[in-house]
Specification:
The chain contains 5 helices and no strands. It has helices at about 5-15, 20-25, 30-45, 45-60, 65-80.
Length: about 100
């Protein structure tokens, strides 16, 4: 079984709540990135928690549909090749 990073899972959660049909993003990495950014902007500072709550609700109401959608979202995020910014090491400043 393959492990999925927290970043990938969080991005897939935002894609899940975008409500866009899977066909709209399944083969289009640029659209995947757009939908994730739009969902994050719409949900605001508490967006990750709100998105997780919405996914949980959907899993409770329609588990078979939600599981298939999340699988598609995870695959789309992995294919979208997000670039992560990792800051360089900090240099100590002395006075």
């Amino acid at each position: 079984m393959r492990s999925t990073s927290r970043v990938t899972t969080t991005l897939a959660t935002f894609l899940f709540v975008s409500q866009a049909p899977v066909a709209a993003f399944a083969t289009n990495p640029a659209r995947t990135r757009e939908l994730i950014h739009e969902a994050a902007d719409r949900l605001g500072p508490e967006g990750a928690a709100l998105a997780v709550a919405e996914v949980a609700y959907d899993y409770g109401k329609h588990p078979e549909d939600a599981a298939a959608r999340m699988t598609a979202c995870l695959r789309a995020v992995e294919a979208a090749d997000f670039q992560s910014f990792v800051p360089g090491p900090r240099l100590a400043v002395t006075r």
